[in-house]
Amino acid sequence: MGPESPSQEAPEEMTSPFSLLQPAPSVLAPRVGKFAVPGRKAIQTPHYVAITSRGSVPHLTHDVVRDHTTIGSLYFGLEDFLEKAPNEVPPIYKVPRALHESALRKFACLQDDILLVLGARRVPPIVCPPANTDNSIGILTSFGYRQLEAEQYIEAVQKLRPDVVVGLADLVLGQKPGVKRREKMVDRTHAYTRDATRQLYETEDGAESDLKKTLYFAPVLPLENTQQTLYLGDLGDELREHISGLALYESSSLSVVPEELGDLPRLSFSEPKTPQEVLRDIALGADLLTIPFIGGMSDGGIALDFVFPPKKEEHKEDQQDEPKRKALGIDLWSPSYATDLSPLVQGCECYACTKHHRAYLRHLLSAREMLAWTLLQIHNYHTMDRFFAAVRESIANGTFEESVEAFERTYESSLPQQTGQGPRLRGYQVHPSGPSEPRRNPRAYGRLDDKAEKFAEALQSSVATPDADAEELQESGFAEKEC
């Protein structure tokens, strides 16, 4: 529904990988486009970029992704692979490959037609105690917090050869930056971008580098336009020939994109919490989006249940006396689904809905079977595929705004809350909240302690012990004659 067959156009003939099929009347407007990198699946935009964790889409093996989803692009965080670097060479750098091959693709064992996007941090990123510096940013590897030097990031791009690289940005996570800190953010990000594009795409004699195939998405900071005017101006002037796209970290940043950069694809890391927020980003001109709630709902045992635009009968009902809005998902932990033999969502054509039913999914969740989260991921990604396909169609037909209004009237404004226990949480999935924070996962051992104590109490009450007196012995039935 999004990706198409691999593009066969030669790199030297392709002036830009992104083309607008339905140009927007202004910068802040929804638009339909096509992002086509030679040898990769062409992606119809707006669309999502699937988020990976340590090299793969959570709960989905490569054959499942190939056979039961239409995922055409993947986002990787470099911090997932660095481990003990620079003290020890990470395994991903040791992958044998030819000069023209991508070490990232070979290490992750991915098929050739999937678009690979590489950034420094995961999505969503964890707040790191190490502060960013003029030459580095703080990251969280599987062995703890550390600094990622800008030079090391450039070397990683040269070795891993992704299709798209997201430039380093000096971001402040978890709090609002002060006035002086904002100035540093702009200066550092400007320097990161200038140095990276020069080292990646230019050689000492001024010729173009062989890394021209790796597309550079320059970061746009979550600041006002006036605070990064010089940086944005440089992107549209001196650095324009090396910039193939923009990476934005807040929805509001879409409003600061200058017109001279308006033809570039926009990759949004705004972390939308609901489909309504996804629609809001699209309405502002976002082309590619990372959507953490897809995996979050799967982990929570929730099957997404919404369509865009809403069905006509649902829309008519919503216009009568403001009835209760529909939920955006189905919580399969609910006991009401224990004997429900209907598909996860009526009318859904995904593998999970055509082959299994709600009762089976609830059984798998209760038994903590990994298959439960695999089936939910398949369904939820299929739901988002249908969602984005309908969004693109509505933009092309000129009915997008009307459909968004109907969607907001029909569905609740928030996703269902998780009621059951998901898979075990890892350190890179949880934001640290400080001292005395609750246990992230239930204790894996000691669950029979309470039963052992009750058994000991029952045994002690029914069996006489040497310390018991005569009355206790009589009460326990000592020396009674059995008939």
UniProtKB/TrEMBL annotation:
Subcellular location: Cytoplasm
Pfam families: TGT
Record keywords, A-Z: Cytoplasm, Glycosyltransferase, Metal-binding, Transferase, tRNA processing, Zinc
GO terms classed as biological process: tRNA modification
Subunit structure: Heterodimer of a catalytic subunit and an accessory subunit.
Function: Non-catalytic subunit of the queuine tRNA-ribosyltransferase (TGT) that catalyzes the base-exchange of a guanine (G) residue with queuine (Q) at position 34 (anticodon wobble position) in tRNAs with GU(N) anticodons (tRNA-Asp, -Asn, -His and -Tyr), resulting in the hypermodified nucleoside queuosine (7-(((4,5-cis-dihydroxy-2-cyclopenten-1-yl)amino)methyl)-7-deazaguanosine).
Protein name: Queuine tRNA-ribosyltransferase accessory subunit 2
